[in-house]
Amino acid sequence: MAERPSVKEVIQVDTDLILAKIESLKDSLRNQFGTNISWTRVAALKHNKSKYKKQKVADPFQITPNRYNLLSNDSNDDNDTPANTGKLSELTTNHARRDKKKNHKKNSVKTKVHKVLILGESYARGCASEVKQQLNKEYEVSGFINLGSGMKDIKESAKMKMAQLTRDDTVVLWVGSNDVARNNSVVGMKHILDLLINSTHTNVILLSAPHRYDLIKDSCVNREVEVFNRSLRNRLKSFGKVD
Hints:
CATH superfamily of the domain at 111-239: SGNH hydrolase
Largest sheet: 4 strands, parallel
Helix content: 40-55%
CATH class of the domain at 111-239: Alpha Beta
Strand content: 5-15%
CATH architecture of the domain at 111-239: 3-Layer(aba) Sandwich
Radius of gyration: 51 Å
Mean pLDDT: 75
Structural class: alpha/beta
CATH topology of the domain at 111-239: Rossmann fold
Order of helices and strands: HHHEHEHEHHEH
Number of helices: 8
Shape: elongated
Number of strands: 4
């Protein structure tokens, strides 16, 4: 029976095999470096100009079709119609539509030459929308309601709103019930007359104080409303403010 090699012998054999492979690799690398260019040649070549040259653009200008027809030297025709009428006609149509809308808006604003201003207490609520439906587009209707206010407060706000009006405009005034209900009809009438006398720059329509239908017909408030309306009408006649 053959004798097994010792561990030392096995290691020695493997070591010799590895050293032999290393030597063979060294020989192959030497042959490879021998065939390549030398380092001095590489150093000299790095100063040379690159062999690659910039590509010249054949035609730097992009040719696009002319939108308009060429002018003829022998023709006196002033036809300036675009050659490509597809998108251009669509753009022209869109511009024409926008211009038409703008002109329509301008005309609608210009046609409103009269203003109607409605001032009143709580019972005048909703009157502006009703009046607007009955008038044409030449009238601009707006309403301002003063809930629970007396004529003194209404007069101060009315002066500021009426300052920009002219003889072409109209103010509808429907007040008086709150002052009558508070037994303050004399003061309320004073402020009404003061507002009407100083409003000569525009037209004012004064409505009578309304009847209180939430009270009985012969209540003291309704009787005072009748007295208030009668007295106010007589005072306006004396000032020449009743047409």
